[in-house]
Amino acid sequence: MRKVFFCLMAMMGVLTLSAQPGVYDFTVKDDAGKDVSLAEYKGKVLLIVNTATRCGFTPQYKELEALYEKYSDDGFEILDFPCNQFGQQAPGTIQEIHQFCTANFDIHFPQFDKIEVNGANEHPLYTYLKAQKPFGGFDTNDQRGKFMDDMLRKRDADFDKKSDIKWNFTKFLVSRDGRVLKRYEPTDKLSDIEADLLMEVNSVLSNIMARRSIRKYLDKPVEHEKLEAVAFAGINAPSAMNRQNWAVRIIEDQKLLADVKGMCRNAPNLICVCAPADGRFDLDAGLLGENMMLAAQTLGLGTCIQTGPIRFLTTDEKAKAFRDSLDIPEGYKLLYVISIGYPDEQPDAKPRDASKVKYIK
After folding, report:
1. What's the pTM?
2. Do 286 and 293 form a contact (C-beta atoms < 8 A)?
3. Contact call for residues 173 and 129 (beta carbons, < 8 A)
4. Which of 15, 189, 252, 350 sits a CA distance of 20 to 30 A from 67?
């Protein structure tokens, strides 16, 4: 009975997860009052923003239009939702608002009907957006950020502990596959938003940002032609004086893999990268591996680079047949292995410390 109970609980959990709404599940009204499904924007990078025409931040319309003109051909859309909840700064009908925006800022991105973004009548889209990306605070080192923080804290000392929209021109960045990536407050710089946007609209950068280390794989070997493509991307990596001091061995033989799978994430295929034993060309071999992992990502494959199994693979008797098959060149060492296969997980991105980067101007 306990097994049945836990199975039922697991099934309920899966059903609950599958029932969770996403950006594309919502319907909004356009400036003519017609229903528009956000599913129409699948495959687009979205910036969703609540706006106002009589706000100190209203000149951001000009910056938003510039951003739209620059990246709209790359699959970028701005979805504008006027809202009159903050200082009554978006009066008038949606037609009057649209006329004002086209006359003063010559906007071309779509404007939707006025909505509420907080409270009992808030649009369900914004309930979802706020749940995905709660308020993260104003930058109080910025003059405008400090002003907003002081103003709102006088009204509510705990305002920063709530996820609600704080003011006009709050923005949400949504990926091509509908994930809410980031929330920006009205005081955040448009240049910072553009830097994040570039990571999504540029196919090379978005591929880099999407790559994750995969540790669970489907029991499905990778097609030979895909492994060839990955290898070709690897050997096109830069190397010192184009010496290409590396040796790559890609294991497709499942019998050879059987003895080492447990040490290599149970991946259906394995890439072994060898480099000169003196260590002088380890950097070149590292660049080769990065190229291969990014190529694998574009092909729908997952990878995980590992040095942990090296001792087992090079010394353990159980790995002798595997080791002998590599035919490592004389004077070379097995530097690392890359597990590769079809992912059976979708790990979240790990935080990155941007303070490690300093710009010397």
Report:
1. 0.77
2. no
3. no
4. 350
**Tokens at residue 186, please?**
């009205």
Signed CA dihedral, 99, 101, 104, 107: sign only:
negative
**One-character DSSP codes across 187-255:** TS-HHHHHHHHHHHHSHHHHHHHH--B---B-S-PPPHHHHHHHHHHHHTS--GGG----EEEEE--HH
pLDDT tens-place string over residues 209-260: 999 999 999 999 999 999 999 999 999 999 999 999 999 999 999 999 998 9
HSE at residue 333, side-chain half, CA atoms within 13 A, is 13
Q: What is the mean pLDDT of residues 109-115?
A: 97
Catalytic residue numbers read 55
Residue 239 in contact with residue 286, Cβ under 8 Å?
Answer: no
pLDDT on residue 17:
37
Radius of gyration, CA atoms only, the chain: 26
14, 153, 205, 237, 329 from 273: Cα distances, Å:
39, 57, 25, 13, 11
Cα angle 229, 233, 237; round to 5: 165
DSSP string, 299-333: TT-EEEEESTTHHHHHH-GGGHHHHHHH-PPTTEE
Model pLDDT for residues 120-146, shown as the tens digit of each residue: 999 999 999 999 999 999 999 999 999
Instruction: Pick the closest to residue 271 from 246, 251, 293 (CA basis).
Output: 251
| Number of C-beta neighbours around residue 185 at 10 A | 21
Amino acid in position 80: D
Q: Give CA–CA dist 77/79, Å, rounded.
A: 6
Q: Closest Cα partner for 246 from 331, 308, 306, 319? A: 331
